[in-house]
Amino acid sequence: MRVIIVGCGRVGSELTIQLGKAGHDVTIVDKRPTAFDRLPPGFEARTMVGLGFDRELLEEAGIKEADAFVSVTNGDNSNIVSARVAREHFHVPKVIARIYDPRRAEIYERLNIPTVATTTWGVKQILLMLSHPREEIKESLAGGDLFRMRLEVTPHLVGKPVRSLNVEGKILVAGVDRGGHGFIPVASSAFQEGDVVHLILHKDAVDLLDEILAPVSEH
Predict the structure, then answer these.
(1) C-alpha distances in angstroms, 102 versus 27, 40, 115, 118, 123?
(2) Taking CA atoms, which of 75, 111, 113, 204 is between 20 and 30 Å from 162?
(3) pLDDT, tens digit, for every residue of 145-161?
């Protein structure tokens, strides 16, 4: 995949590094030459100094052949202008912009420009942590009725069927991370030591899950 990233700050540089490691062709643009110092020495990525909405620069960056365009500068206006140029002028298939102001995010979603509203996400995460101190709860879904949880398999579950955690209408094992590789369990799947489980559960089922996870001697 050929990707153009605008903004070599914390997000842009890390995104460039991760995409590069995955074998993608990445070009990163920033108006400050020193911004590229965030990239590791010797890291192979094309860097260009300039503005993300400069059409001549974008053409030089290869935007006509790009599969994706991501604008993650620290300015909402720059991100949106850059994203609109990529979407409306160059017709890049996938365009994403980071937005700080959640009100703007809603507007540009309606213009078919997907946005990552870091302010909205941050507020939701803090509210979740305040309301539910358990660190295993990673996200609330469906207006807060469902939780997404990530937890390590307890010793007494090792060897047992993954389906033993499922409770109809209450708890569902959505996936298992084993040795850095994830899979969706089937009927014959069994837990192994070191497994990390990803669950979807109803908000009223947290205590029930605790009972299931507790060693037999504690019941």
Answers:
(1) 28, 32, 9, 8, 11
(2) 204
(3) 788 888 888 888 888 88
For the chain, where do the domains classified as CATH 3.40.50.720 start and end? Answer: 2-122
- Residues comprising the chain, all counted: 219
Question: Under CATH, to which class is 2-122 assigned?
Answer: alpha beta
Longest Cα–Cα distance in the chain: 70
Tokens at residue 21, please? 């490691």
CATH superfamily membership of 134-218:
Regulator of K+ conductance, C-terminal domain (3.30.70.1450)
Structure tokens at 114: 């997907």
Asked whether 194 and 178 are in contact (CB, 8 A), the reply is yes
Please name the residues in contact with 13: beta carbons below 8 A apart, sequence gap of 6 or more: 28, 35, 38, 39
DSSP 102-132: HHHHHHHHHTT--EEEHHHHHHHHHHHHHH-
Structure confidence by residue, pLDDT tens digits, 83-140: 999 999 999 999 988 888 777 767 777 777 777 776 666 666 565 555 555 556 666 6
